Amino acid sequence: GKANIGVTGLAVMGSNIARNFARNGFTVALHNRSVAKTDALLDTHGDEGSFIRTESIAEFADALATPRCALIMVQAGSATDSVIDELASAFDEGDIIIDGGNALYTDTIRREKEMAERGIRFIGAGISGGEEGALEGPSIMPGGPASSYEVVGPILEKISAHVDGQPCCTHIGEDGSGHFVKMVHNGIEYSDMQLIGEAYHLLREVGGLEPAALAEVFREWNEGDLDSYLIEITSQVLAQVDERTGSPLVDVIVDQAGQKGTGRWTVKSALDLGVPVTGIAEAVFARALSSSLPQREAGKSLPSGATNVPLDTGDDFVEDVRKALYASKIIAYAQGFDQINAAKDEYGWDIHRGDLATIWRGGCIIRAKFLNRIVDAYEENPELRSLVEAPYFLSALTDCIDSWRRVVATAVHAGIPAPGFASSLAYYDALRTSRLPAALTQGLRDYFGAHTYRRTDAEGAFHTLWSGDRSEVEA
Ligand code: NBP
Fold it and tell me: The pTM is what?
């Protein structure tokens, strides 16, 4: 028989997804640029289900039942373009190509258009969950025409993670929307990790807790509101003892964070859309700062300065930090969902924010109990202006605010950088503030550039004749 689905690109992700399809009863056609990877997969896992080995794209196309349906799992960028082109040449009208790589959403918009012109149905699917998710059930965010989703949706839903019986896969919207929300998912992941890092840093440096004790703190946190994959693995990483030195592993790892680009893409897009995603931006910059070696070297002898303010390091400090982390996390998600909403308007995507929270509950890196709260919030009010106005989040922020302020103040007084905690608190305070200094900014812009301003008490645009008699004219 022919294959239900094909996978081309059999590195870590592609192999595991191919096995996932096979374990779920689908016949899977396998292809990789170099045949060695295909054979390695068949050697080690060929008995897990029904696979068809192919060596060329022509053989691959021939092995697939029609309409053909192939998932590409190769390096994002030009490699993906060349594989798409090869597949499209071997495929017929109505066949479906799914790009499961980490494509930039603007590339996906372009590719979907190009493929539509050639009669090929193209789906850009964000896939999260790393290696393990790919095998056991990832979170899948497919974008493209709804009619194409009808064909492949059931297959993708079957191999995705499930939470409370619901698949962590749903049609996101048109063309690049799937890769867009995957990008923001990754941005949120950056922010989650930064906040966890700040909590760790404060509890260690100010709270005096050692990694083993901190592992226990995070393990306990994982039983409450913060229950999530990242908190769980934080506990495990902190508990890990280095084999060579006997020190905590975290103490022998070089403190320079890497990045592959999706966090940066999220911030670039947010800048273009004019959406303040300060939580994600601080996280991206914090990684960049950690790797800014000449500057760190140059700054080593900067004085910390002294304050006479007593530090908040009492028994309640751990709980204060937990609340600061939770509140900052709420802000980061509120900002990320705002960005998705802005993109929905900009690109005309029919995205339902509640659906995203639903499919991020399992399979992916940011999976968390917390996402159920977001699902509830959008279920109650799909048109929320910000997550912070949903009753649950409003009450959570109310509960956290005092601790949050104490922790940020403590960080400042102790000289511990906590840009995630501090910037999300600044965002929170900006939202609360009835009169922002943006009024002065507008005055300055009008002074040097005649950019005009609006008045609080009249319609229209106004300009003050700054270099004349300083009277006001209507612009
Ligand atoms: P890689 O991103 O490392 O890509 C390796 C695969 O790309 C190999 O199969 C390789 O074939 C193939 N390839 C390359 Br490189 N250039 C090619 C070309 N010009 N033509 C055909 N094939 C080409 O693999 P990965 O880590 O499994 O990730 C696959 C995709 O999934 C990426 O887009 C990645 O960003 C995304 N993703 C990864 C993760 C993760 O946790 N790693 C999570 C979510 C998404 P070869 O064997 O012949 O060299």
Answer: 0.95
